[in-house]
């Protein structure tokens, strides 16, 4: 019945045509009205939709990337914030300081470094930042913080790098004492050699000793006294002392010489 009436009623046909036209037009418009990044949007206006995956942030009435994403103006796409994590940070320990570096590209970001609970927060300058006045031979965790504004929000991205400072240079020899005299065919004696400790957490020392002739010897020690070293009296010996930290990084080397007392 209704079909019959429609077929015969020219006015209805024209109306239906218009209706169809409007529906199509609306769809076309809403497709065109997909708002680009940064464009104004309004949630109550159904014709004004942000271009997916952009979402309308109602605080600002602006089409922005979803949470945990940022807008990369180069690719013109929303990218994961994980991409912003600093991957190319290197930190090395000196005796009293830690020096961290970033690639040149990263240094344009607002990036800082601190270690453990130290109050020093050092900004990177030309890709490098140095935290001074640290303890020698110590394990630190450097926290690199990048602060930037993404999508109208302040974002903080952090990375951590573990680093050991070098132990301080060990001190000089403080005593060489003849201990038990023992007759040997080489006319040698037992000596105790004591040196000054490094500042800092030393895992072990390597003490090397030689004379101008063929004699050379090496000791690994946790203490600062090496007992019962077989040396000749009245002879000049050259030594070197190196301290190693818990990650087996060496200090600067202390070198010197001493002469054993004559018989
Ligand atoms: C959003 O749309 C509503 C209804 O059209 C309007 O009253 C309101 O002013 C709009 N807000 C903005 C920020 O455009
Ligand atoms: C720094 O933090 C690390 C990890 O928490 C810890 O193992 C280390 O001992 C700390 N170093 C200092 C000097 O506090
Ligand atoms: C310790 O040394 C190893 C090998 O050299 C290195 O891979 C590691 O990163 C070091 N750890 C720290 C905390 O410096
Ligand atoms: C010194 O380093 C060792 C690892 O070599 C660690 O076990 C110890 O806790 C450190 N001591 C201090 C006082 O930092
Ligand atoms: C520590 O370093 C020294 C010298 O570089 C090396 O001879 C030694 O094998 C290292 N020890 C460990 C445990 O890596
Ligand atoms: C070590 O001490 C001796 C004598 O005390 C001195 O002659 C020598 O210069 C010192 N060496 C260093 C490296 O300080």
UniProtKB/TrEMBL annotation:
Keywords: Signal. Residues 1-33 form the signal peptide. InterPro entries: FN3_dom, FN3_sf, Ig-like_fold. Residues 169-263 form the Fibronectin type-III domain. This is Fibronectin type-III domain-containing protein.
């Amino acid at each position: 019945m209704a079909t019959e009436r429609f077929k015969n009623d020219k006015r209805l046909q024209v109306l239906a045509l218009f209706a169809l036209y409007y529906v199509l037009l609306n769809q076309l418009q809403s497709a065109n009205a997909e708002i680009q990044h940064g464009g104004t949007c309004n949630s109550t206006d159904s014709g004004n939709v942000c271009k997916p995956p952009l979402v309308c942030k109602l605080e600002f009435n602006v089409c922005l990337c979803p949470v945990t994403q940022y807008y990369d103006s180069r690719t013109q796409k929303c990218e994961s914030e994980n991409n912003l994590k600093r991957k190319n940070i290197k930190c090395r320990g000196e005796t009293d300081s830690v020096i961290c570096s970033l690639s040149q590209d990263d240094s344009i970001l607002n990036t800082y470094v601190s270690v453990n609970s130290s109050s020093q927060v050092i900004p990177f300058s030309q890709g490098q930042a140095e935290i001074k006045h640290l303890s020698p031979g110590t394990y630190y965790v450097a926290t690199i913080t990048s602060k930037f504004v993404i999508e109208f929000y302040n974002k903080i991205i952090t990375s951590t790098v573990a680093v050991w400072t070098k132990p301080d240079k060990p001190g000089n020899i403080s005593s060489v004492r003849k201990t038990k005299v023992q007759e040997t065919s080489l006319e040698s004696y037992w000596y105790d050699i004591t040196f000054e400790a490094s500042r800092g957490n030393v895992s072990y020392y390597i003490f090397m000793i030689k004379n101008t002739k063929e004699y050379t010897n090496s000791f690994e020690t946790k203490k600062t006294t090496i007992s019962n070293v077989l040396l000749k009296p009245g002879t000049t010996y050259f030594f070197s002392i190196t301290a190693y930290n818990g990650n087996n990084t060496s200090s600067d080397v202390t070198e010197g010489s001493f002469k054993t007392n004559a018989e």
